[in-house]
Amino acid sequence: MTYQLLPSGRSEIEYLRVCVRSGGESLMKRILSEKAFEEAVRYIPGGVNSPVRALRAVGEKPLFVDHAKDVTITDIDGNDYIDFCLSWGVFIAGHANPVVQEAVQKAILNGTSYGIPTVLETHLAKRVSELIPSMERVRFVNSGTEAVMSAIRVARGFTKRNYILKFEGCYHGHADHLLVAAGSGVATCGMSSSAGVPDGFVQYTLVAPFNDKDAVEKIFAEYGDRIAAVIVEPVPANMGVVPERDGFLQYLRTITQQYESLLIFDEVITGFRLTLGGAQKFYGVTPDLTTVGKIVGGGFPAAAFGGRKEIMSMLAPEGPVYQAGTLSGNPIAMTAGLATLSVLSEKGLYNNLNIKAEKFIAELQSILRDKGVVINSVGNMFTPFFTEEAPRNFDDVSKSNQKEFARFWRYMLSNGVYLSPSQFESNFVSIQHTEEYLSDVLEIVRGY
Ligand SMILES: *Cc1c(COP(=O)(O)O)cnc(C)c1O
């Protein structure tokens, strides 16, 4: 193994590449990660390219990854961790999945971008559309942020209305007009919004608490005929997992139809996560527009938005809504997406995954109940909250004990388990988390 970043660290690694456990207490060393971080902050703001990676919310310094396989990540000090973050939900089929890897290795020999169409784009669009039939037309972009931003532009162009309604604690990427009451990293940093976003840019963004029909009703009574779209994470995961209650999603479908507004499901996390057909299939509620990301790129920067033909035909070159991208539909990303979806298309895969996950989460809950933890979950997505009652919205989530969460997180890390590093995130069970791994994790949790 060579460490080009830190050639001088080599002998130190050999000396320190140990994870000594004694009496359940870990003496894991992260000396090289600390050095790498010192170096990184000299060139990169905060040393990271996405804020939550800095691990500030859990009172740690970032670890630097050397490699990953299945559900194990190995840091540059040689420590192994069982990963439940999985690149924020990308690797439902595990890190370095051999089917995806082989496809990508072949594809890369043909060149990596042309700025000219390839049939791969059509193949993946067709596959996405078969699996999520409401996405009659699909356009690929490079990130979830871009997918949501573009879906909203299309919704506004189609309805000729300006307002959008989003929910507190739902995160839809970092586009200016969506950085209002956004969960995830924004919540972690304690920003209600972001500096650098002029008031005028968010003047058309309305916000309601999640699961609150009355609040939505009131907003529609006042703004209804000016609302282009309601956007929602069908399983909010960026304030930690907070499931819908009492048919909230169906209610949103009904009221948007009543006012001729569009319903956008941001399935950047949930697309291909709970079922192949996304959360819309899981809940049986069909939106007008959908965004997918994370899983669909198979570990490469790809995402997509899509919906009914007449809405999507507003897009240039067919219609007047402009949207474009130099690397959009990138052949390597399309290849990784196709390979990932082929792995996920195995019969019974989601059923087995969700049964395994639900059993694990139930055991986790029974161990942690005494420690004042409530676990919110849907299928294979889960978040432990240090609070008495299961959170129903962002307000509830904010009242949970984040110090306790951070303490628990650090305990898990020091025992070789990498949970998503914030109270405001989801953890993911993947098809590669074997029963063996899961029972090891439960054993570690028992020691907390
Ligand atoms: C991750 C995420 C995004 C943003 O995607 P990026 O690829 O990080 O830009 C948008 N919406 C949801 C629901 C997400 O989880």
Please describe what this structure looks like.
- With 448 residues, this protein is α/β, with parallel strands linked by helices.
- Helices cover 36% and strands 15% of the residues.
- The strands form four sheets. A seven-stranded mixed β-sheet has the order 6-12-11-10-9-7-8, with helices on both faces.
- 50% of the residues are buried.
- Residues 1-26 and 187-192 have low confidence and may be disordered.
- Pyridoxal-5'-phosphate (PLP) binds at residues 143-145, 148, 171-173, 233, 238, 266, 268-269, 293, 303.
Quick structural gist:
Helices cover 36% and strands 15% of the residues. The protein has 448 residues and is of the alpha/beta class.
List the helices and strands and how they pair.
Elements: H1 10-16, E1 21-22, E2 25-26, H2 31-41, E3 65-69, E4 72-75, E5 80-83, H3 86-89, H4 98-108, H5 119-131, E6 137-141, H6 144-159, E7 163-167, H7 184-188, E8 205-208, H8 213-223, E9 227-232, H9 248-258, E10 262-267, H10 278-283, E11 289-292, E12 303-307, H11 309-312, H12 331-344, H13 349-368, E13 374-378, E14 381-385, H14 394-398, H15 402-414, E15 417-418, E16 427-428, H16 435-446
Parallel strand pairs: 5-15, 7-8, 7-9, 9-10, 10-11
Antiparallel strand pairs: 1-2, 3-4, 4-5, 6-12, 11-12, 13-14, 14-16
The structure holds pyridoxal-5'-phosphate (PLP).
Pyridoxal-5'-phosphate is lined by residues 143-145, 148, 171-173, 233, 238, 266, 268-269, 293, 303.
